[in-house]
What we know:
Elements lengths: L2 E2 L5 H16 L7 E4 L1 H8 L4 H18 L5 H13 L5 E7 L15 E5 L2 H13 L4 H10 L18 H6 L10 E7 L5 E7 L14 E7 L3 H4 L6 E6 L2 E6 L5 E5 L4 E5 L2 H4 L6 H18 L3 E8 L2 E9 L18 E4 L1 E4 L2 E8 L14 E4 L15 E4 L7 H9 L3 E3 L4 H4 L4 E6 L4 E8 L5
Parallel strand pairs: 16-17, 17-18, 18-19
Antiparallel strand pairs: 1-2, 2-5, 3-4, 3-5, 6-7, 6-12, 7-8, 8-9, 10-11, 12-13, 14-21, 15-19, 16-20, 20-21
GO molecular function: ATP binding; kinase activity
Protein name: Pyruvate,water dikinase
Keywords: Kinase, Pyruvate, Transferase
Amino acid sequence: MLIHLSAATPRNAGAKAATLARLANAGFPVPPAFVVPTDIYSSFVAHLDIPSALAQGGSTELRRLIESQLLPPRLLTELTHALHALGDLPVAVRSSATTEDTLHASAAGQHDTHLAVHGPHAVATKLLATWSSLWTPRATSYRRTALPPAVSPADASASDGGINALDVALLPGAGAVDPALAVLIQRHVDADVAGVLFTGSASHPSGHGAGDVTVIEASWGLGESVVQGLVTPDEFVVGADGVLEVRLGDKRTRIDRGSDGTVSRDVPGEARHRACLTDDQVERLRKLGQEVAECLGAPQDIEFAIEDDHLWLLQARPITADLVLRSSEADAGERELVLRGTAGSAGVVRGPARVVKGPGDFEKVAVGDILVCPFTDPAWTVLFGVVAGVVTEAGGRLSHAAIVARERRIPAVLGISSLHSSVQDGQLLTIDGSIGTVRVHPSPHPRVS
Length: 449
């Protein structure tokens, strides 16, 4: 039933696991892992009436239904044996859906990941939760709006970062109607530092071309702080001849393995603003990224972790939307405040600020609003089908939500620490996601009823 990572293919394990299998088989530092393949998910939900559950109770009812089921005894036994083969150590339980990590759509952050899971029963519980995350509002919304119904014959010869486009087209659930989900179970990495790097996807004002530039974002602890936009990470822009630019972030918290799952801790003041990567680590990451991109034949979005100075490759997928690296030289009007942050997604848009502090505020968001929020929680990307732009107090341009904003071509400016005190709900904003500026106009913008 279960398969070793080395045997993962796009058909049986989704693109995420299949790409990691290719990299592991090529000798890259991928954590030991096994996969619960897509056919187990399909068999498990075959007797469930998914359309009726969605129609009657929405995603909440369907998720409850999936998570209330019992795993087959044989699967529990195989999970126990496979975990023992990994040394009975804590593991990461990660989605590998047929609708993610493709050339057309990343689905970044749209399905659940569970870190520091220990023991067969805990893994079984998180397996069910990961399966059910295929049906969260953010995941179903993403599939409806971001995925093509199929890959056209013209795309069949296109590279998918190591996964042939024909394989993707033939996968169950390649469109938005019938997705399937494999689950990747990896040895948990106790990261001292972790983050994301993009290879060959951006040009730099210094004149370096896109193929020469690697962008790295990193923070203390596990990578969830970076990909979920919980902190403003350190950013390193690196060319073949060395570092081109360093922007130290505000790494105020870190996530680490706890006694049961993960815990969030405050970072001491001095470490908040100290670089979390050494020069040597930056160069090793640049080299690793270039080698992965060469192996897979396309620029890559790579998640990494550093444990006791050892680099681990946690994920690699095609870059679905390029970065734009520009400096802000904007001048304010006489009565306008200009806030400066990180250019997360290119474009200029004007609209009323809609301050959202949590899911309870979602209902007040209307078409054309500028989403103003503390950080770019992937669960909030359901709003990306409505808003005209995004501004955040924390987060980096390689976070999951920033990636989705670029896919949707929604302008975004990230990491404005003074945002909460500078912008009021309803205030008229003009944001430029190409240079990272937000103009706060002096008069409120009334809601049009």
